[in-house]
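User: Some background: our group keeps a shared notebook of sequences we're curious about, and every so often someone picks one and asks for a predicted structure to add to the entry. Today it's my turn. The entry only has the sequence so far, pasted here. Could you supply the structure so I can complete it?
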Amino acid sequence: MRRSGDGRSVAVRVRPGAGRTRVGGRYEGPHGPALIVAVGAPAVDGKATEAVRQALAGALGVRARDVTLKVGATSRDKVFAVAGDVGERVAALRDGSA
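Assistant: Of course. Here's the predicted structure to add to the notebook entry:
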């Protein structure tokens, strides 16, 4: 996770089509250690990406509009920009200390 301006870049590994939405766990991805986000939405027409954006916002306690996709529109490995100081919360969710 990197700082970018007034927020953070958060690497995410998406698991679309899951039975329930879940945010937590670690995946060693191409953008570094990533937070795993499982969503029920299918990986079609950006539905999973939008579901991940909403789930990530909820898990980090920020508004959905404060979470924007930076990299990976069609990939399971994505990078989101998150406004605010969420570094500790991301680390806790990713590394299992939440």
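Suggested note for the entry: The chain has one domain: 2-95. The longest helix spans residues 47-60.
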